[in-house]
Design goal:
Elements: H1 3-10, H2 12-26, H3 33-36, H4 44-49, H5 63-67, H6 78-91, E1 95-102, E2 108-114, H7 117-121, H8 123-138, E3 150-156, H9 164-178, H10 182-190, E4 191-196, H11 201-214, H12 254-266, E5 270-277, E6 283-285, H13 300-319, E7 348-355, E8 361-364, E9 367-370, H14 371-391, H15 393-413, E10 418-422, H16 427-439, E11 445-446, E12 451-453, E13 456-458, E14 463-467, H17 473-479, H18 499-503, E15 506-510, E16 538-541, H19 548-557, E17 563-565, E18 569-573, E19 576-580, E20 585-588, H20 596-610, E21 615-617, E22 624-625, E23 633-635, E24 641-645, H21 651-665, E25 669-673, E26 687-690, H22 700-711, E27 715-719, H23 722-728, H24 763-768, E28 775-781, E29 795-800, E30 815-826, H25 831-837, E31 841-848, E32 851-856, H26 867-879
Length: 889
C-alpha cells in the first residue's frame, strides 16, 4: 500500500468526524450545501468539479487522496502543490516539470508541461521548430507548420491572496494527467499546455498560512470575520510587497525575470491569466471595452480572437449556471499585465477574474460565495481555454506569424527609426536596462560615433541605439511611449507606459537609418569602471555616477571618513583632467580609522563590486573650483534609517523603500509597525521614512516625538498623501491647491461652486477626466541643491497617479523640483489637470530647527524601476544631513 494511501485512510475518521460536526452545525446556521453535503459522502472532484462522466486512470492519486482534504475545503500550500505535481510527473508520461527560477524567499518557480507522451519526449525539438518558423516570419517568409502543436500557457495566482486560481491549477493538472477521454487525448496530441500554478509563491503562502490559521469552524460567511480580513500587508504582493502583475515589462523581481525569460524561450500562442476580484462581482473574461480600451500597437486580429474565444467561456459558465460579464471595467491599454504582455509580443493574452470569497465562503449581495464555487469556475474556464486553443490552433499560429511579419512593415512607416540612449555615468542602471532589453528579445546597437541630436550630446561607447526595425517593434514603442491623446478618459490602471522615463536616461529619436553600429548584446551588458590606482593623499568619486550612493553607504557603514562637495571642481589624475560635480565624494587618507593599505584594499573591492570609478588624487589643489581642503566639503555621518509600516500605509511604497535599502543601497533599515512606535529610541536613527498613507495610529505623544526629533536634527522623508497628514499635524506647513479632491483647504474657505446638472450615465466618464491614474510628467530640478545632486539634466520625469497639487514652499531655495511648463510627457491628463499641475511642487524641503523634512509629492521609487528618481531619494537619505538650516529665503 502506498504511503499516501495509508495516510489518507488513517485520516478518514478525523475527516468524517469533522464532516459530521460541520453538518450538525449547519442545521443551526446557514452553511452552504457544498460543505454540508460532504457528510453525506459527496466527492467534490467527481460530483462538482469535473465534467459529468469523467473517467481517470487509477495509478495517479486524486488531489483529495494526496492532500487528505477535498479541494475547496482548505487552502493548499505551495509546497504541497509542488509535491503533488512531482507525483503527477512520476506517474504520468503526459507530464514534465520545468523549474524556471526561485523567488526572493527561495521557493522554486515551477511550470508543469502537459501533452501527449510523444510531444513530451520531443518538446525541445517542437520548441526549436516553432522558434525557427517565427524567425522565418521575421524575415518576411511565412511558412505554415500544420503539425505545430498549440502552445498554451495557463498562469494562476500572480496575486498571492487570489487562491482559487491556484486550486484550479491542481484540478487542471490532474485532469490532463489522468483523464481517460478521447477528447483530452486529442487535445494533448495537438497542444502542449503549460501550467504555472502559483506565479507569486511567497505572497501565496503568506496568505494561505493566514487563512488556514484563521479559518472559522464551521465556515463563517460574515465579511467581518477575521478569516476574510488578512493583516497588513496582505498576500497580494511578493516578498518585497511588489505587485508582480505590474512587473512583466519592468523586470525588477526574480519571479518576473524567470517568467519572461521562459515566455520568450517558448513564445506561446496563448496565455490565460487567472485572478480574483471583489466578492460582490461575478466572473469576468475578455473582450474588454472595444477601441477606446485597446492598445493601438496590438493588431485588430488579436482582439478579434478574444471575441471568438469568448463564446467558449460563455458556454462553459452557462453549463454550470455561473454568471459573468465582459466589455466592462478592465482594459488592454497597459502592457505590463500577464494578460496584456502576450498581446504585445505575438501571443494572445486573456484575463479571467473570479469573485473572491477570501476564505471558505462569504455572504454577498449575490448570495453565498463559496471557495469551491470560485475554484470550479476557474477550472472550467481553464478547460475551455484548452478546447478553444485547439479548435483555433491554426488561427492562433497564423496570427502570431503575421504579428512578427507586420512589425517590420510598421517600422518602415514609422518616422522614428531608432532611439539613441545615453548611458554615461550609469554603469549599473545601464546593465539593468540592457538585460531588460535582452530578456524581452529587443535588439540594440553600439553607438560608434559622437552625435548631437535635439540639442543632446551622445558620446560613442557610452550610448546605444535601439532600432525600431525589429521583430519586437511594438515593445520598443512601449518602452519609449509618448502617447498623450486617448479616446477614453477612464483607465483600469495607468495610461502612461514609457519606462524609459523612469530610468532617467537622456535619449533622442532618430529619424534616419541606424546601420552604423554593431551588436552590443553579448559584449557590453555590463560596462566596466576604470580600475583604481593607489593614492597617498585622497580618493575622489564623481557623484553623477549612479553607483556613488551605494558606495557612500558602504563606506559610512564601515566608519570611513567621507566628505561631500558643495561645489563642482576639477582635478588631474594620471595626466587626465577630471571634472567632479556637486555632491562628489572626498575620501582622505588621513584621519581614517584604518590604515592607507586597508583603505586602498577596501576601495579596490568596492570599485570592482559596485562597478564604480574611483579617482586617485595626489594633490589638494584643484585646477578649477574648490580645493580639497575647502570648507565646501561637508563631512558625512552614518544615517540609520527607520520605516514605519502597518495599516493605512501603502504597502507598495513601503515595500519599495525596503527593497531600495536592502537591494540597491545594501543598507539595513528598521521596519517598525505603528503600534510599536512608542518602544523605539528615535535618537538612534537619523532618517525616518513615511510612505504615502494615513498615520492615524500614532498618538499625540508620538506625533510630538516626531516633531521634536526633526527639530533636533533628523531627516524626515515623506511620500504623497503623507504630506497632507504632516501639514494637518503642524509638523510641516505644506499647502495644497484648492479645488482638488485631495485638497486640505477647510470647506468654509472654499469658494461657492456653480451648481450644475449632468446625465447620471455620464458620471463615470466625466469623473474619470478629473483623475490622474498613472501618467508621466516633466519636472525641473535644481541640480545645485543637495537633493538634486548628481543629475546631469535640468529636467526629471516623474510618474504620478494622484491629484495632489502642492504649492511651492515659502523657503524659496528649497523648492527642489517643480512641474515644468507643458509638463505632460506620456499618458492621459485632462487639460484642467495639466493647467493645475504646472508650476506646482514635486519635491520640497522644509527646514525645521536643526532638521529637515523632504517631501516627495510623487513616489520616487515607483515599482523599483524608477532609477532616475531614486537618485533624489538617495540624496535625501545620505546627503539630507548637509542641508543648511539657516537657509530660509
Amino acid at each position: 500500500m502506498k504511503k499516501y494511501e495509508v495516510f489518507f485512510q488513517c485520516s478518514l475518521l478525523l475527516f468524517f468526524l469533522w464532516s459530521s460536526i460541520l453538518f450538525a452545525s449547519a442545521q443551526e446556521g446557514p452553511v452552504p450545501k457544498v460543505f454540508q453535503n460532504e457528510s453525506a459522502g459527496q466527492n467534490l472532484e467527481k460530483d462538482y468539479y469535473f465534467p459529468a462522466g469523467s473517467r481517470f486512470v487509477t495509478n495517479i492519486p486524486t488531489p483529495s487522496q494526496f492532500f487528505n482534504h477535498q479541494i475547496g475545503h482548505s487552502h493548499t500550500r505551495y509546497d504541497q502543490i509542488v509535491d503533488y505535481f512531482k507525483i503527477l510527473e512520476q506517474r504520468s508520461g503526459r507530464i514534465k516539470i520545468d523549474t524556471i527560477g526561485r523567488t526572493w524567499e527561495g521557493r522554486p518557480l515551477i511550470v508543469l508541461k502537459a501533452s501527449s507522451p510523444d510531444n513530451i519526449r520531443n518538446s525541445e525539438q517542437i520548441r526549436q521548430q516553432h522558434i525557427e518558423t517565427i524567425n522565418k516570419a521575421k524575415e518576411n517568409r511565412i511558412v505554415s507548420n500544420e503539425t505545430q502543436p498549440a502552445l498554451v500557457f495557463l498562469g494562476f495566482s500572480v496575486h498571492g491572496n487570489e487562491t482559487s486560481a491556484a486550486e484550479a491549477s491542481i484540478l487542471t493538472a490532474y485532469y490532463l494527467a489522468a483523464a481517460e477521454d478521447p477528447v483530452v487525448a486529442t487535445s494533448l496530441a495537438k497542444g502542449i499546455f503549460f501550467i504555472d500554478p502559483v506565479r507569486n509563491p511567497d505572497g501565496y503562502d503568506r496568505y494561505v498560512n493566514w487563512v488556514n490559521a484563521n479559518a472559522a469552524f464551521p465556515p463563517n460567511g460574515s465579511p467581518l470575520d477575521r478569516e476574510h480580513n488578512e493583516v497588513w500587508p496582505g498576500g497580494r504582493t511578493n516578498h518585497y510587497w511588489f505587485d508582480l502583475n505590474r512587473d512583466w515589462i519592468n523586470q525588477v523581481n526574480p519571479e518576473s525575470k524567470a517568467r519572461v525569460s521562459y515566455f520568450q524561450h517558448w513564445l506561446p500562442h496563448f496565455q490565460g491569466d487567472f485572478h480574483e476580484m471583489g466578492a460582490a462581482s461575478s466572473f469576468f473574461f475578455e473582450p474588454t471595452k472595444t477601441d477606446a480600451q485597446e492598445s493601438p500597437l496590438v493588431p485588430k486580429s488579436t482582439y478579434q480572437l478574444n471575441q471568438k474565444l469568448a463564446t467558449y467561456y460563455a458556454k462553459a459558465l452557462d453549463e454550470i449556471g455561473s454568471f459573468y460579464f465582459t466589455k466592462e471595467q478592465f482594459d488592454n491599454i497597459n502592457p505590463t499585465y500577464g494578460s496584456t504582455y502576450p498581446d504585445h509580443v505575438g501571443s494572445l493574452g486573456i484575463l479571467f477574474e473570479q469573485a473572491s470569497p477570501r476564505g471558505l465562503f462569504q455572504k454577498t449581495s449575490n448570495g453565498d460565495l463559496t471557495y469551491p464555487f470560485a475554484i470550479r469556475n476557474h477550472f472550467r474556464i481553464a478547460l475551455a481555454s484548452i478546447t478553444a486553443s485547439i479548435d483555433h490552433r491554426t488561427t492562433l499560429l497564423e496570427n502570431q506569424l503575421r504579428f512578427f511579419q507586420s512589425a517590420f512593415e510598421l517600422a518602415q512607416k514609422d518616422p522614428v527609426k531608432g532611439y539613441l540612449v545615453d548611458l554615461k555615468y550609469n554603469n549599473n542602471t545601464a546593465a539593468h536596462f540592457k538585460e531588460l532589453l535582452a530578456r524581452h528579445q529587443i535588439r540594440y546597437l553600439t553607438n560608434n560615433r559622437d552625435r548631437k541630436v535635439d540639442g543632446k550630446d551622445f558620446e560613442k561607447g557610452t550610448s546605444i541605439i535601439i532600432p525600431t526595425a525589429q521583430a519586437n517593434y511594438r515593445l520598443v514603442k512601449v518602452i519609449f511611449d509618448e502617447t498623450k491623446t486617448y479616446v477614453d478618459s477612464v483607465f483600469y490602471d495607468g495610461s502612461g507606459n514609457s519606462i524609459a522615463y523612469l530610468y532617467g536616461f537622456s535619449y533622442a529619436s532618430l529619424k534616419q537609418g541606424v546601420d552604423n553600429g554593431e551588436s552590443d548584446q553579448s559584449s557590453a551588458i555590463n560596462p566596466h569602471a576604470i580600475a583604481l590606482t593607489r593614492s597617498n593623499y585622497a580618493y575622489l568619486v564623481d557623484w553623477r555616477q549612479e553607483g556613488a550612493a551605494w558606495l557612500l553607504s558602504q563606506l559610512l557603514q564601515r566608519g570611513i571618513l567621507v566628505k561631500s562637495a558643495s561645489s563642482p571642481f576639477e582635478l588631474s589624475d594620471q595626466g587626465r583632467t577630471i571634472g567632479f560635480d556637486y555632491g562628489s565624494l572626498l575620501i582622505p587618507i588621513q584621519g581614517q580609522p584604518i590604515s592607507a593599505d586597508e583603505l586602498f584594499d577596501l576601495l579596490q573591492k568596492l570599485n570592482k563590486r559596485g562597478n564604480i570609478t574611483i579617482a586617485s588624487a595626489s594633490t589638494g589643489y584643484s585646477g578649477k573650483g574648490i580645493d580639497l581642503g575647502s570648507s565646501g566639503f561637508k563631512s558625512l555621518a552614518p544615517q540609520n534609517a527607520l520605516l514605519l509600516t502597518g495599516n493605512g500605509i501603502s504597502a507598495y511604497e513601503a515595500g519599495e523603500v525596503w527593497y531600495t535599502f536592502e537591494r540597491q543601497l545594501e543598507q539595513p533599515i528598521l521596519r517598525l509597525n505603528l503600534d510599536q512606535f512608542s518602544r523605539v529610541n528615535l535618537e538612534e536613527y537619523q532618517v525616518l521614512v513615511l510612505a504615502s498613507g494615513e498615520y492615524t495610529g500614532l498618538s499625540s505623544a508620538a506625533i510630538e516625538r516626531i516633531r521634536a526629533w526633526v527639530k533636533n536634527g533628523g531627516t524626515l522623508i515623506a511620500f504623497g498623501r503623507t504630506g497632507q497628514w504632516l501639514a494637518g499635524q503642524k509638523i510641516a506647513s505644506f499647502q495644497f491647491l484648492d479645488g482638488r479632491s485631495d485638497s486640505v483647504v477647510p470647506k468654509e474657505e472654499k469658494p461657492t461652486k456653480t451648481k450644475e446638472r449632468f446625465d447620471y450615465a455620464s458620471a463615470q466618464g466625466r469623473e474619470g477626466t478629473k483623475r490622474i491614474g498613472g501618467t508621466y510628467f516633466n519636472t525641473e530640478i535644481d541640480r545645485t541643491h543637495p537633493i538634486g545632486y548628481g543629475y546631469t539634466q535640468k529636467t526629471k520625469p516623474v510618474y504620478r497617479n494622484h491629484t495632489l497639487f502642492v504649492e511651492l514652499g515659502d523657503q524659496a531655495y528649497n523648492n527642489v523640483a517643480i512641474y515644468s511648463k507643458s509638463p505632460l510627457l506620456n499618458g492621459y491628463a485632462s487639460a484642467e489637470n495639466q493647467k493645475s499641475i504646472t508650476g506646482t511642487a514635486s519635491i520640497i524641503v522644509e527646514n525645521s530647527g536643526n532638521g529637515r523634512i523632504v517631501y516627495f509629492v510623487d513616489d520616487p521609487l515607483f515599482r523599483g524601476i524608477s532609477f532616475g528618481n531614486a537618485r533624489s531619494f538617495f540624496n535625501a537619505v545620505l546627503l539630507g544631513q548637509v542641508l543648511q538650516s539657516g537657509i530660509r529665503r
